[in-house]
Automatic annotation (TrEMBL):
Name the UniProt record assigns to this protein: peptidylprolyl isomerase
Enzyme class: isomerase
Matches recorded under InterPro entries: Nitrogen_fix_NifM, PPIase_dom_sf, PPIase_PpiC, PPIase_PpiC_CS, PrsA_foldase, Trigger_fact/SurA_dom_sf
Highest taxon, organism lineage: Bacteria
Catalytic activity: [protein]-peptidylproline (omega=180) = [protein]-peptidylproline (omega=0)
Amino acid sequence: MNQTADVKIEPYTLLRAALNLFKKAPAELEQPQLKQVEIQARNEFEIENRVLSSDEATGVVISDIELERAYQDVRGRFEDEDGFIAALEANHLDEQALRSALHRQCRVNTVLERVAARAPKVNEVEIGIFYHSHPEKFHKPEQRKARHIVISINPDFPENTREKALERMTEVLETLHRKPHKFADLALKHSECPTAMQGGELGTVAAGVLYPELDAVLFALKEGGFSDVVETEMGFHVIQCLKIIPAETLSLKKATPKIQQIMQDRYRRNCQRTWLASLPAIKRSV
């Protein structure tokens, strides 16, 4: 009689699944999360066993340099050796066990890379079809580089009642009209937003990112212009448009490298999935 072999959960596979699913170590998970991670880890380990039992895995050798690179990549995530060793022990690992698990993972990755290399190459016709079928992927909307000054409304503080906040912002705006070149200095002095430390700069934004009230005003301004006082749920603002970056649609020529990469990655993944689905389950006699 044959049946599917029980799959033992290796500590490294369990840790990897926990980090991928929840960005936490297994010991930090609640029981329902841990159950989910255990299922994921078993599935991954079983698939890896099938990969390593395939004909494509024959002759795959991982060099000491490649293994050391993988080991150092993990080691480099920790500030010191003590922290690294403690993390290994907490996850039922030691250096030898980690190296063994990484060697296995490198072999699996090498086999999958071999399989992916069989994927067909993307041709110019396919690139053209993709480009014309997905125009939204190659259109960049108009953007604005902006900065602002904000004074918040908070009735718990006398200087931030709605009336007082509006009065303070009105005074800032009057100063700006006299000395528009002082915008960054006024932001540093008066703005109640963390951006004050950068002169009120918000960076480059597209429509729909800011509060609707600010959005409407910003995208109506000319380059270099600043607004009157604008009220949002946060408080009162003055916003300035530093630069207008026009909308742009990438040409087929400019878009080709991006399309080629997207489609080739898709072909590679499909090739790997098809191959994995064809692998027989590993069985044992009972």
